[in-house]
Amino acid sequence: MNTLIVPTDFSTIQEAIDAANSGDTIEVLAAGGPYTGATISTNDLSLKGTGNPVLKDSVNGFLLNNVSGVSIEGFTIQNSVHGINIMSSSNNTIEKNTVKNNSVSGVSLLASNNNWIEKNIIENNSVDGINLASSNNNTIETNTVQNNSVQGIWLSSSNNNTIEKNTFQNNSIHGITLASSNDNTIEKNTSQNNSVSGVTLASSNNNMIEKNTIDSNDLNGITLMTSNNNTIEKNTVQNNFLNGINLLVGNNNWIEKNTVQHNGSDGVGLERSGNNSIEKNTVQNNDFDGIELEGSHDNALEKNTVQNNFFDGIQLAGSDNNALEKNTIQNNDFDGIELEGSHDNALEKNTVQNNGFDGIEIVGSDYNSIKKNTTQNNGFDGIEIEVSKHNTIEKNTAKNNGFDGIELEVSLNNTIEKNTVQNNGSDGIELEVSDNNTVEKNTALNNIANGIEVASTSEQNIVFKNTSLDNDNIDLVADPNTNTVANNVCSTSDPAGQCVGGC
Q1: Residue 219, class by beta-carbon neighbours within 10 Å (0-12 exposed, 13-18 middle, 19+ buried)?
Q2: DSSP labels for 115-130?
Q3: How far is 167 from 130, CA to CA, in rounded Å?
Q4: Minimal CA–CA distance to 351: which of 400, 292, 287, 402?
Q5: H or E element at residue 136
Q6: Mind listing the pLDDT tens digit for each residue in 467-501?
Q7: In angstroms, how far is CA 493 from the centroid of its own chain?
Q8: Could you report the per-residue pLDDT of 68-112, keeping only the tens digit for each?
Q9: What is the pTM of this model?
Q10: 329 — phi, psi (to 5°)?
């Protein structure tokens, strides 16, 4: 195990490599540079730069070809085609180098496994900062990768790699891109100010994206396209130009415990995506909706806090069979939850409060179940059902809303049962131009206008066994000639004589 010194013992790095044996150290002094590139084909060599020697103007700064156990530390590699090119090589360490201004990539791995790329500065390269192709089980850690003309880091058909504690910034496309790459870990990185997205997965599965800061990218924070079974957890995703997290045709992904805030469009957006779990996230202060599902089915949204977004808290458009449970949706400028053209969804045990318009709005949406929610202090209605049919509104509490507790407009065959509606700014329950609905066993108390009102434009409804008391105007308004009205407890009715226990 000898130490060979360049330029003391050899005038070029290549001469020293050719003379070295496995286990030797080659020390390169800055004073003899700049140097041309070198090819390494001997295992277990250590190359150390002293004083930051420069390699430049070569096809490869360093080419590692079918070697293992090589370490390269302390060099500046610049103005070549490839900075450091690793081919069919394993168990090598690239550490504390500056790799810049190369005409292709800074560091490239092809069919290379179990390498360690650490604490390098990789910048201003004409293609990618770091490129992995068909390379597995590598660790990319604590690098600064910036101002590259394409990607910060690109993985293609590369699996089980760890990308950790790096900074990817100001790259001309994505900060981090995975294409057809599976089972990778992307953890504790900062990806910011990239010209497209911070992190993009395309046709990539079973990856972990955890504890990253994704900030101020020019498109989305995190984008998944045709990618399944990935986990996006405990990230801070903020100040991106469009969506914070965007899934396009992605299934069975887990989005949990993220903070998604101050993005220019939606906080979390799903398009044509199914069977995803969105749980325990804080989604706030985004310029459009907090969470939007478009053409997406069988997703679970649970225990999220969705607040202070400029439009709706949660919006479903053309999205069916989703479950929204135990979310807190508050202080959004438009509706808390809006369903538009969405069917067979279940909304249960949500708290929807202090939103600018309706707490829950259902438009052109059928066969939905709205149960055990609390809708309170919203600017308009607690729950509004419009041009919708066969929905079940059961065991909800709608109180202190600016207008009605529950309103049906141009809606048919819905069931409103066992709800408590109180202290609302207009009616407790109102049906307008709505037929064949059932209003049963509800409690309507202390509303500013009527307790329950079935407008004259609504017919063939069943109003049965409700309790409507202490409302400021009339407790029960319903025409028994065009509706079935029976066994309601109230003090006042129009027409008179329809109350039991007080009229």
Answers
A1: buried
A2: -EEES-EEES-SS-SE
A3: 12
A4: 400
A5: none
A6: 999 999 999 999 999 999 999 999 999 999 999 97
A7: 51
A8: 999 999 999 999 999 999 999 999 999 999 999 999 999 999 999
A9: 0.96
A10: -125, 110
